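Hey, weird one. I pasted the Hydrolase, alpha/beta fold family protein sequence into the form twice and got a warning about non-standard characters only the second time. First submission, copied straight from the form history:
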Amino acid sequence: MGNIFVILKPIIHVVMKAAGMTSQLVEIEPGTTMHFWVPTESIHPNNKLTNKSPVLFVQGFIANGIVTWLFQVLSLCSNFAVYVPDLLFFGDSITTRPEWSTSIQGMMKLGVEKFSLVGFSYGGMVGFKLAQLYPHMVESMVMTSAVIEMTESISNASLKNVGFTNWPDFLLPKTVSGVKVLLSIGTQKLPWLPEFFYKDFHETMFGNRKKKVELLEALVVSDKDATIKTPNYSQRIYILCGDDDKIFNKTFSDDMKNSDFAVYVPDLLFFGDSITTRPERSTSIQAECLAKGMMKLGVEKFSLVGLSYGGMVGFKLAQMYPHMVESMVMSSTIIEMTESISNASLKNIGFTNWPDFLLPKTVSGVKLLLSIGSHKLPWLPEFFYKDFHEAMFSNRKEKVELLEALVVNDKDATIKVPNYSQRIYILCGDDDKIFNTTFSDYMKE
């Protein structure tokens, strides 16, 4: 029987081709060639790039790019422009340059100017370095089982966790039993695998041993020479970590996180203690006051999370002040309340106007409002509804005016089709009784 990984290689090529991916060798510079899996449509004549959002997947140290990310690529390539390189001295990527630090990897030759990045283990460290060197290219990152930089103190602590004294002995095992130890430590629950799997893995995945040893030696830096003492990235970073990670445990991921988000929670006009003597009642004045309030607080850029009416205010804010709003998470909302959307939504909930629904005059009206506005309303005592009614519906006259100003004629809508520069995440529920998935589907590009 032949080596299973050698047998699988042409099969993977067929599967990837069927999924719309193509293998390509890219000369980064004379003497340095990187192998990529790229969207087939991106290598058409005139290098016409796909309009899908580009995502770069960067492997760990054990296997090449596609072996690491095969299942993720197959799941995501229909919705994203997926790029999967082999890092230098993995797969078919080579260089004759004497220095092999994590700073020499790149995507520019493929004509991709901006992308999101997903990094695993060693690939995460490469990704952090790439984001540091080329912040204009990396828009956001998802990092798992990685640290920003392998300082001596982190290296020593991690090696102690896994019971080794150096990285080559662990990551470049010389025996089949060493492969078993590596895979058992590197996975949460390693399933039973036949003996030939480990033997074939050992024969296939550890080529260029001398070069990889040198990569590992170059990876560890003295604590005093570390280029980044504290995380300071312009990109949005998502860190995935496991409580039982045996190499980089949760202590390291906690250290990477900023201590907290700087959270700002305003009361919109005529809610809480926020007031105005200006006569306007549109979402534009709410957005203007929010923007000016944030500027007064010294905040020039921020992400925004909006719910329902706050989502519509948020969309208006992003339209009026695009330089301030970097990204948005919107839930149970729409871009603009046109007459047709308003009528359809009111019909969904059995009302003829918004004040009767959102500004109930009775305790039973409060119960109906909360039951429609929540997925599964738990039992609450009667006094809760009574006190809620007494406390939450002040400034009734002004709020009625806000609701009247909220609805615009279809022909006067300022935004026919969503067109925002920000990254927008839309959260919607299939059972949303007010703005159902029909509206959220319309908002998506």
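That's the output from the first submission. The warning seems to come from a hidden character in my clipboard, not from the data itself. The longest strand covers residues 21-29.
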